[in-house]
Amino acid sequence: MPETPVIETDSEHPGCVRLSGDWIVDRIADLQARVDQLRGPVEALDARGIERIDAAGAWLLVRLAQRLEMDVSAIELEGEHRALVDTVARAEQHEQVGDTVREPGWRRFFGAIGKLITDGGSHFVKLSGFLGLSLAALVRIAPRPRQWPVTATIHHMQQTGLNALPLVALLSFLVGAVVAFLGATVLRDFGAELFVVDLITFAFLREFGVLLTAILLAGRTASAFTAQIGTMKSREEIDAIRTLGLDPVVLLVLPRLVALLIMLPVLAVAAMVAGMLGGLTVSVTSLGIPAELFLSRVEETITLRHYLVGLIKAPLFAMVIALVGCLEGFKVAGTAQSVGERTTSAVVQCISLVIIIDALAALFFMEIGW
Predict the structure, then answer these.
(1) Euclidean distance between CA atoms 90 and 240, whole angstroms
(2) 320, 305 contact by CB (below 8 A)
(3) Are 221 and 294 in contact (CB under 8 A)?
(4) Which tens digits make up the pLDDT trace of 112-151?
(5) Does residue 327 contact residue 127 with C-beta atoms inside 8 Å?
C-alpha cells in the first residue's frame, strides 16, 4: 500500500517543512489538498523523507517551490529523485517561456522562408534519388524481356495518351483560335495581319503545344498516379508486393514512366497541329486570310529547329510528371486525407516544375540562337 504523504513543519526549525511518504499520482488529490493548506513563511523544503515520487508528484513539488518563491535546486532531495524533479522543472520553465515569449514577426517571416527553401531542397534530393532508383530498375530489367511489364505499359499508354487526346486537341484548338484573335487585334493597326500566321506557328511549335500538353497531363495524369499508388499503399498492397519478392518500382513506376515518355511527345505533336488548325480556322473565317496563303506562309517560316525546340522538352516534362506523381503516391500515410493532400501536392509540383523547366529551356535556346 502507498504510504500517506506527510507535509509537516520541523519543530526544531520552524522555517523548514519536511515532506515524506509517497508523492505519486494515486495520492495526487490528497497531496494537492495538503499543499494548499500549507501556510506561513517557509525557508527550506526537506524532501529527503519521500519514499516514492513520479512525474505527477514532481510536478506538484515544483509548483509548491514556485508558490513559495523558492529555487527548485534548493529543495533537499535524495539522489534518485533529483533527476526527475529537475527534468520536470526544466519542462515547466520551457512551457512558461513558450507561452510568454513570442518571436518577432520578421523572424517568423524569414524562418518560414528558410523552412520553405529547406523543404524544397529536401524534396529535390528525394526526387533525384527516386529518379536514380527508377533508372536502376530500368537498367536491371532491360536484359530480361520476360520481366518487362508490357501489359501494364500499354494500359497506361491508353489511359494517359489515347484517352487524353480529345481533350488535348480541343483545348489546343481553342487556344490557337484565341492566339489568332489576339494577334490580329494588335497587328491590324499596322496592316500586318498576315504575320498572325508566324505568331501561331512559332507559339505552338516552340512553346504552347508541348506546354499545354504537359500542364493538362500534370493535372490529369499526375493526380491519377498519386491517387492510384496512394490507395494501394493505404490498403497495404505495396507491402504485399514486397512480401511476394517483387519490386514495386518495376511494377508500378516503370510502366507509368515509359508510357508517358512515349505518349507525351505524341500528344504534343497533336497539340501543335490542333493549335495551328485553330489559328487557320480563325484566319480563314474572320481575318480574310485564305487557307492556301496560310499554309504557304507556314511552309516559308517553319524550320526543323522550331519543331525540335518544342519536342525536345517533351521527355523532360514526361519524366517530371511521372516521377512526381508516383513519388507522392508512395508518400501517402494511409488515410483518405493523406491521399487528397498528396494528390494536390503532386499537381502543384508538376505544374510548377513544368513551367520552370520551360522558362529555363527558353532562356537556353535564346542564348544559343535557336
Answers:
(1) 46
(2) no
(3) no
(4) 888 888 877 888 888 888 888 888 888 888 888 888 888 9
(5) yes
Whole-angstrom distance, CA of residue 220 vs CA of residue 205: 23
3-class DSSP state for residue 73? helix
CB count, 10 Å around CB of 277? 17
For 9, residues 6+ apart whose C-beta sits below 8 A from its C-beta are: 16, 17, 18, 40
- Apex 5 CA angle, 4 and 7, nearest 5: 140
Burial 314-328 (b: 16+ CB within 10 A, else e): bebbbbbbbbbbbbb
By DSSP bridging, strand 16-23 and strand 44-53 are parallel
3-state helix, strand, coil in the chain (%, to 5): 80, 5, 15
Instruction: Give all domains of the chain, ordered by start, each with its CATH number.
Output: 6-100 (3.30.750), 124-367 (no CATH)
What is this structure's pTM?
A: 0.68
How are strands ordered across the β-sheet holding 16-23?
6-9, 16-23, 44-53
Q: What are residue 180's phi and psi, to 5 degrees? A: -65, -45
**pLDDT, tens only, 264-285:** 999 999 999 999 999 999 888 8
User: Is-contact 149 338, C-beta < 8 A?
Assistant: no
